[in-house]
Sequence to fold (386 residues):
Amino acid sequence: MKNFDFYNPTHIVFGKNRLEELDSLIDKNAKVLILYGGGSVIKFGTLDKVKASLKNRKIIEFGGIEPNPKYETLIKAVEIVKKENIDFLLAVGGGSVMDGTKFVNLAANYDGEKLTDLLKYGFSQALTIKSLPMGAVVTLPATGSEMNSGGVISYNHGKHVISNPALFPKFSILDPTLTFTLPASQVANGVVDTFIHVVEQYVTYPVNAKFQDRVAEGILLSLIEIGRETIDNPEDYNIRANLVWCATMALNGLIGAGVPQDWTTHMIGHELTALFGIDHGKTLAILQPAIWQVRKEQKREKLLQYAERVWDIKTGDDDNKIDLAISKTRDFFESLGVKTHLSDYDITAEKIDDIINALENHGLTAMSETRDLTLEISRKILEIAI
Fold:
């Protein structure tokens, strides 16, 4: 197992009717900026419940954060934070709203001249900032942003990762009933996103991290068991509660501590979303099987472990086990209603050059857990993904 630091200060408030406790989680005298996305939190009454729970505090609202939160939109919220002397940031929504709120916090407390510098790879992580306290009311299980210090922001036809220890939410309220009204496609995307978060920390190479591996496998097995069920039975509390907790635990640092990580699927996936507008979760389902096909030798030991422990594939030679595990993974995504080829989204081979150019422009020329995944290898992955 590799050396690691593990730090996670977020207070999770999980279960039915926990939104009622919001009043006790925020300072009574705080001026609160509520950030949210589209109209769903208004349509289904979540925003009204949040405001009622905040009681007599001064509240300002900022809506319209996009599914892939745009820098230009978030800067408007930064201006509000500064002008109104906001004391607390409250994200009400899914991963995009939470990510956007983290950027607002980062930018509002950054002393540099160019806020776009915050989007440079690794820049935000190295900063020492005094952030505002922030919390989250989660309405979509997927990103794990409710219990980590990272986010992804869209700017200039690219998606940029921000991260800083000061960006952990102070608390996150996870009431599975708030997710019951989600469209089936969003739930499916969330299952896929969670699944990929896990395998990008698990299917790398062995470092004898037995605890991390077993927890990762437990999350994957749970997702396989409940993925289709929670789509078909959106108001089954127990099934949805398990999805919500799996999504949180997949990316809060626990299973990634002390193990190599490979975020190739996410990095290439971000380019597909930026270029073609494909949902984030769908890009991951397209790419992961293709990546494993190309990287079989580099990931052989962990792919075999994945095949045997997650898919219970115990017979056949090693190559057959790996191939079957990849096939079963693709079938699982398809069973959720998520298509797994670029051609399913009208992306043809002629577009591969555009994707490769975007990867090169964003410095993504040496990806993977071993930093040896070149643009040439990315091209092979995309060719198979067609």
